Amino acid sequence: MGFGSDSSGGAAVEQDSFGKNLFPLKTNLRFEVPEGISKPLLKWYDRNRRILPWRENPAPYGVWVSEIMLQQTRVEAVKPYYERFMERLPDIRHLAAAPEEELLKLWEGLGYYNRVRNLQKAAVQIMEKYGGNMPGSYEQLKDLTGIGSYTAAAIASIAFGEKRAAVDGNVLRVTARLCMDGRLIDDTKVKASVEEELTRVMPSDRPGDFNQAMMELGACVCLPNGAPHCGECPLSGLCKAHIQGCELEYPKRAPKRERTLEEKTVLIIRDENRAALCKRPGRGLLAGMYEFPSLEGFCSEEEVVAYLKENGIRTLRIQALEEAKHIFTHKEWHMRGFLVRVDELAPREPSEITGKWVFVEPQERRERYPIPSAFSAYTKYLDHEAPENDFKKGSSLK
Ligand code: SF4
C-alpha cells in the first residue's frame, strides 16, 4: 500500500499494492463550502459581534481606513489609531491633502508604512476621478492604489451591499477547516477559488454582515496557533475538520522563507537639548521615516567614538544600552545601542554623513518626526528633558 497524488486536486490518496485508489485521506478532492453556513453564522454574529468604532457607522471612508489599518494589526491595537486618524483626517478630501509627515506620524507604530502612502494615493485618485466620493463597486475599488481583492470586497459589501466575499487569512483558515481543504492557502489561485465559493453561498440581503461574521469567527473562535474554540462555534455541526477531529491539521501552508539577519549599531546622539535623527531613503523598507544614525554590524564603544570623531563630533560620554530585535516579514534587525553625549551636535564642517542629520528637540520629535516602532527600545532615550540622568553608568571621555 502507498500514497499517491490525485490529479483532480493534488490531494493525497491511499492506494493498494496495484496502485488502485482506495479512499481519499484527510483532504478534500472537491472544494465546496456547505450552503447552510449563512443562517447559523449570522445568528451567532448578531449575538456575539464586537462593538467597533468603524462598525457602528459603516460609511465607505471609515470602512476603508479601518480595513487598511487592520491588515497585519490586531483590532485592539487599531482602535486608538483609527479614532485619531478620523479626527485629524475626517474625509477623503483631508486625506488627499495631508502632508506626508503628518500621515506617517498618524501611522507611527502601526508599521507597513506603504499602506498609508497608498491610502493617500488612492484618495487623490478618488478626488480626481470621482469628485471625492468613494466609488461603490468592487471593480472600481480594486482599480485604486493599495486596494486588493480583499479590501475592495470588504468595502463593496459592508458599505455598499454588494455580494462579494472578502477573504483574508482568518477566512482562509475557517474555510480550510470547514471543508478540510488541503490546498496551500498562500496560493493566490486557492484564495480566488475561496472568494468565488463564498460569494456563491453568501446571502444577497446581508453580504457585509456575512463577511464580517466570517472574519469575526476567524479572529475570535476559529483561532490560529492553538486549539480553536469549536465548542463555541456556530459551524461545528458542518465543519468537516471538527467532525473528524483534525482541526489542527488545517490550514496547509507553503514552507516559510528564511529571514535575513542584519546587525546594526544604533546611536542616540544628544547634546544638551537636541538629538540627531536622519531620514530613511524614499523607497524600500520604512521609506521616508526618521531613524537614529546607525552603523552596520555590532560596533564597540571605541569604534563608535572613532566614527563620530571622523565626522567632526566630539564625544563627551558614552553608555552602552540594551540590545534589541525587530522582526519584519523577511528580515530581522538585531540592534546594539549607545547613548552618546556630545558637546555640539552640528559640526562646524558637516561630513557627507552628518550633513544629512536633523537635530530635534524632544517635543518637536514627538509632534513631527515619525520614528518606526522597530526602534521602540531606544526612542525612550530621546524623551528625557535632562539627558544627564541617562548617563549614570556611562564612560566619561572628558
Ligand atoms: S468547528 Fe472548530 S475548526 Fe471548525 S470552523 Fe468552527 S472553530 Fe473552526
Written account of the structure:
This protein has 398 residues and is of the alpha+beta class. The protein has two domains: 215 residues, Endonuclease III, domain 1 (Orthogonal Bundle), CATH 1.10.340; 137 residues, Nucleoside Triphosphate Pyrophosphohydrolase, CATH 3.90.79. Helices cover 38% and strands 16% of the residues. The protein has 16 helices and eleven strands. The strands form three sheets. It has a five-stranded mixed β-sheet, covered by helices on one side. It has a three-stranded antiparallel β-sheet with strand order 1-2-3, with no helix packed on it. A three-stranded antiparallel β-sheet has the order 6-5-10. β8 and β9 form a beta hairpin. α3 packs across α4, α9 crosses α12 and α10 packs across α12. The protein is elongated, with a radius of gyration of 26 Å. The termini are far apart. Bound molecules: iron/sulfur cluster. Iron/sulfur cluster binds next to α10 and α13.
